[in-house]
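Why run this: before we spend reagent on co-expression, it is cheaper to look at a predicted model of the complex and decide which construct boundaries make sense. The entries below are exactly what would go into the expression plan.
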Amino acid sequence: MLFRRSARADEFESAALPHMNDLFRTALRVIGNRTEAEDLVQEAYLQAWKSFHRFEPGTNCRAWLYKILFHVIHHHRRKWFNAKLVKEGEEILEDLVAYEPPVPEHLRDAEVLSAFERIPQQYREVVLLADVHELSYKEVALALTIPVGTVMSRLSRGRKLLRRELAAIAEGYGIKSALANGEGA
Amino acid sequence: MNVVNFQDGQCKRIRAYLDSYLNNELLVETNHEVLKHIERCNGCAGLLEARARVKEALQRAVRDDVAPPELRARIQKQIRRTTPATRTWLVAAAAAVALLVGGLGALKVWRAGGHPELPAAPGVASVFNEQNASVLKIGIGDHVHCAIDSGMSRLRFTEEEMAIKMGPDYRGLVPLVRARLSSEFEVAVAHRCTFNGREFVHLILKKDARVLSVVITRKSGESFSKDDFAADIGATGVPIHESRMSELGVAGFETRDYLAFVVSDLAAEQNRLIASSLAPAVRDFLAKLDA
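The model came back. Tokens follow.
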């Protein structure tokens, strides 16, 4: 029995642990706190281990782990903030569609992360999964338990918001944006 | 410098595709169309380049972080000292053993009103927690009392009888459930019943000699534990909590005001699948009642 469990644990570790860094980076960028991110990743792995009997070998382990991680993150946020994730005023963001703010040629990591942190969580989640970790739209939908259409619209808005935040940096460099010129306001 | 060429509206259309192009999420034809356009449009090519730059910068910045080395050790330590849930066949085998060594007696006591704890077969306990086990017993209780012990599963109501017995609020559940299960399942009974002073909306379905109940009741302070991460969150987004008691499987989910259960003598996986396929529609149906 002990031998069988150990072999099962080995199987789990070899399938799941290679994704630990990506899970940690995701949790860190969603939560914004290293200690909490570590705890959430550890909790996600524990839940994944408990549910490992439901994991089908040969299917996408990474997407499955992200699904569990976001389940843990959302539960954590509800627990501590006693509120469901607030839907942002998405219609207001449509106003941003009309112009393309210029993005600086050279971006420092700290600037990019600072801009990214200013984006609402629901957009950060999809941008992280699709653009950073390069999950397909379908895998993102599965991980966040939202429809593919919602993934696409959040991605589009999240990217626009990020470009807007980066454009603010560009303005700081003295590059004038189209908005400042009165276009697309 | 962004040179905008909206002359034929093509730039506007192509720009909507640029992000998907970068993510390789476009159909081959659209991909080709974007490629052809950016070859001759400096404005759109510049935008594509800027977007690629943002994506690369974000990837680089995020990937710069690594998990501390001790996190891996912490996870491994936790895994090694935690018993995982077992595969379905192990659960079934454990349940069978529990049945052989006295589970049947426990079920009889429970049917008589004794309500012992669910059998704690080895390897099963980690699948659910105490709070959820007690909520799931509500669903099993009505199935055993009404469908099995009272012999309701031997009856066959007409459509008209079902509509009358369900009442105007709940009669819509019958076609809703029927539409989501294979035609092998026949809705034999749909009615409202009472067990242990609690009201239930109860559908009894039959497939050959198998009996399946869809049981719904208003909450009376009970709720599933949110800590049951072993719950099957499936593709539907509705957490399904499950357990087995002797030969019966129960899978339950909740809405703000209701608890809903699928109880049957089917294999655990099949029981769970049925609950998963019903959950979103039943949840929406009950939400409309609350509205």
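The two ends of chain A are 67 Å apart (CA to CA). Chain A is about 65% helix and 0% strand. Bring this page to Monday's planning discussion.
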